[in-house]
Amino acid sequence: MTFDQSRADRLDEALLELLLPEGAVRSLGQWLADPERGRQYAQGSGSHSVPCTPSKWMAVAPWPRTFADRAAVASASVSRAQVVAAVRCAARSESWAEAFVATQVWGYGRAGYGPCRTGQVLAQPKAEAVFAEAVRLLVDEGAVAAYDVLNTLDGLGPAFLTKYLYFAGQALPEVRGPLPLILDRVVAGVLRRHATAVGRAAGYEWSQAIAARIWRDGGWTSHRYGVYLKWMHAANDQLPAASISWPANPDVLELALFSAAWDPE
Hints:
265 residues
């Protein structure tokens, strides 16, 4: 099937109109109420932590000043709140490479290839300038413009560049437009299945093929990221009215979708 942008636009319109079905709201409410799953995030996602091995990052510089000493700590965990604090600290001296490293340590967790890939991005002569320009654009123009400039760095895929955007958006006092959120293949998979279902309900027999293209596992355009942010923020605004005590923070919805709180299928 040849890709048809007009069909993609129609599917996006349907997605932004219908947002979350009743089953999704119910599943998200159950996730938030479950003490073993989402209850700890009822006031926000700051406590969401990932394990990491600081000693594996010895060759990566600059190391975030607020993080544990790599030589002294064999294993550790890093929370979203700690990354926000590290990015905020780095921002005071405009050390955007340091801020970037903080986001990647959290993003890769214990994945052994994380330090190597992060080092390869940092080694590019334009890296520091791109990180700084992305922050400037985030403040002045918004997340979509910042996404485009970060996407020029070799080896920095959307799942990890959106982590940088997300934490920068959390740390900076003000950014333009909707706050950036993380988009990875897990969350994209939820949107792909949901868009397929929404399209079928609208009578679009082609919805599965189009959804598979626009919500694929990676390589998303900045336009797709903009659609994602619109949907996430609108869907999050829908939840407080559903009497499930949903927090105001849209990053909790991102975490819930990543945690398989709702499967559209």
